[in-house]
Amino acid sequence: MWTHDRHMRTQWKNSDPELAGALEADDNNLIEKIVGNRLKEHFDKQKKDQERMARLRNADPNDAEAQKEIEEMIRKEMIQNNYAEAQEKFPEFFGHINMLYVDVKVNKRPI
Fold first, then answer.
1. 1 belongs to a structural domain
2. How many CA atoms lie within 13 A of 4 on its CB side?
3. What Cα–Cα distance (Å) separates residue 54 from each residue in 37, 50, 51, 80?
4. In which domain, by residue range, is 50 found?
5. Does the pLDDT value for residue 1 go beyond 70?
6. Cα(92)–Cα(98) distance, integer angstroms
7. 62 in a structural domain
8. Euclidean distance between CA atoms 11 and 9, whole angstroms
9. Per-residue pLDDT tens for 54-66?
């Protein structure tokens, strides 16, 4: 079994049913195929982005379409930066957090 924690298995099944199924079946070939495909997609996307950046760098500065693409890229980058900053500063907004409350007495006085 890939994990003994029932809640973790449920979370995996909900967030990534394909990979969770492969892990549960203990099928190493399928796991390798899924991860390999995801890595290939990631690297292909990264390569496309790099090609687009090179094309935009070499584009005519007065080209309206190139300016729109550059503006869109800047907007997306700002959104990603804001999201990352929000996750760092306010992680409680991005997930469920269990709080532990303990009854405490200090000098025989409850707090």
1. no
2. 0
3. 26, 6, 5, 21
4. 6-110
5. no
6. 10
7. yes
8. 5
9. 888 888 888 888 8
